[in-house]
Write a structure and sequence with these properties.
With about 300 residues, the chain is mostly helical. The protein has two domains: about 160 residues, Cyclin-like (Cyclin A, domain 1); about 90 residues, Cyclin A, domain 1, CATH 1.10.472.10. It is about 55% helix and about 0% strand. The longest helix has 21 residues. The chain starts with 17 loop residues before the first helix and ends with a helix.
Length: about 300
């Protein structure tokens, strides 16, 4: 990640370089771009769901998702054929919470992931695609997601090991600035800070965390905030100033256009992913990634 200028480091993020955006360790290891995007998307949602169950604040969850996404970027990043998404997600969330005012225990983290990754009990569509409506089905038996003491000790060591791998991969740079507070400040500056508009802005910013375009790795918080405001204002029919107000916040029209398109595309992308994986689980461990790559290879040879 390219470090931000020293004077603005407290307000800026390290962004992905051109090399990191053009090639990833996973693609070098033979993971197709669409499969990589699907797995990253599922992993970010897994992190979000785990954070909610752990009752962590949204800013901690968002920072963990950014850290999770950064880990896979570039040829020096983590490969999906070496590291399991479930382990990296758990370690990113545990590490982010530990560095905050809301630390959580390894046991709590691992218990939550045991539930979310259970094929019988998980409410997540990409883990348990057939459990679309859990309200009309009996509750799963606790044995299906129970983490024994032996399993806990083993997974605890994996959690600590992957945490250290993430830190080394990111050069121990865990600094993440989120655009949410920036957006609120901009709304007040523009004189249009209403609950409906602010909620819609936050929805776009939270959805952007899951973007296949890696919006949080390519643009600074001020640009993300401006794009979310621009898009949300149009959707809730709030009139902004007539001038090119985004330039006041150091965002040019090209940046704004790219980000608006990226944010608008999230709903369609998420819907397409659910259709794509409606009968199969998204591979979240190395063995399943290898199996999916082999399945695709055999289909190509047979087709």
């Amino acid at each position: 990640m390219a470090p931000p200028a020293a004077a603005l480091s407290s307000l800026s993020n390290a962004l992905a370089t051109v090399e990191q955006l053009s090639s990833s360790s996973s693609s070098i290891d033979g993971v197709a771009p669409d499969l990589e995007a699907s797995i990253r998307f599922a992993g970010a949602q897994l992190t979000q769901a785990a954070g909610i169950l752990l009752r962590l604040s949204q800013d901690i969850i968002a920072q963990a998702i950014v850290t999770f996404t950064r880990f896979w970027a570039g040829p020096e990043g983590g490969s999906l054929r070496i590291y399991s998404v479930k382990d990296v997600s758990a370690a990113a969330l545990y590490m982010t919470a530990k560095l905050s005012f809301e630390p959580t225990s390894p046991r709590s983290v691992l218990n939550v992931y045991a539930l979310l990754l259970s094929k019988e009990a998980s409410p997540l569509w990409f883990v348990n695609p057939r459990r679309q409506d859990p309200t009309d089905k009996p509750a799963p038996a606790p044995e299906t997601y129970y983490l024994s003491e032996g399993d806990y000790q083993t997974q605890r060591q994996v959690l600590f090991r992957i945490e250290s791998v993430i830190l080394r991969t990111l050069g121990f740079n865990t600094h993440v600035v989120l655009p949410h507070t920036v957006a609120l400040t901009y709304l007040q500056t523009l004189g249009v800070s209403t609950p409906a508009l602010a909620n819609r802005v936050f929805e776009h910013l939270n959805a952007g965390l899951l973007s296949p375009q890696l919006l949080y790795l390519t643009h600074q918080p001020n640009a993300l905030a401006v794009a979310a405001i621009y898009l949300a204002a149009r959707e809730v029919n709030v009139k902004l100033v007539d001038s090119e107000w985004w330039e006041v916040f150091d965002v040019d029209r090209e940046q704004l256009g790219f980000l608006v398109v990226g944010m608008k595309s999230m709903e369609g992308f998420a819907r397409a992913e659910k259709v794509k994986w409606e009968t199969r689980t998204v591979p979240l461990v190395v063995e399943d990634v290898d199996a999916e790559i082999e399945r695709r290879r055999m289909m190509e040879e047979g087709g």
